[in-house]
Design brief:
four-stranded mixed β-sheet; alpha/beta; 8 strands; 145 residues; 25% helix
């Protein structure tokens, strides 16, 4: 039996990083519990002080297919290259220059949202289709693939 997974990001600003990844992946912020209209209302009712309300955030795939993403505040900053990273499939079905043009357009959009472009890997047939290495606003590596 396959298991469901959650991908967890340690970060300095869970709300901001969740907002970036929601836009990058087409995910949505997890709904507040019960009948609360907003997370702020829910956290207020739970007695969470204002300075702790950005300790965590979570996203879900609106289609229910992808894993839940969880963002948790940690005191230390990022220190080394990720050993695991996300590949964002930004050019499905495209090849060659059309593929690279679609990846470049998505990179430009995400840079405007706070991502950083790191490097471009050109297509190298038969196996290499080309991709772009990026970092999110907190320096976590990912690829546009």
């Amino acid at each position: 039996m396959a298991r469901h997974i959650q991908i967890t990001f340690d970060c300095a600003d869970p709300a901001a990083l969740a907002d970036f990844w929601a836009d990058a992946l087409g995910y949505r912020l997890q709904s507040p519990p019960g009948n609360f209209p907003t997370w702020d209302a829910a956290l207020e009712a739970m007695g969470v002080p204002p300075e702790r309300r950005n300790d965590a955030s979570a996203l879900s795939d609106p289609d229910g297919a992808g894993p839940r993403l969880f963002f948790q505040r940690v005191p230390e900053g990022k220190r080394a290259k990720n050993r695991v990273h996300l590949d964002v499939r930004a050019a499905p079905g495209l090849t060659g220059e059309a593929r690279m043009a679609a990846l470049e357009a998505e990179a430009e959009r995400l840079v405007a949202r706070g991502a950083t472009r790191v490097e471009r890997h050109e297509p190298d047939p038969p196996l290499g289709t080309g991709h772009l290495v990026m970092t999110d606003p907190e320096g976590n590596e990912f690829c546009l693939d």
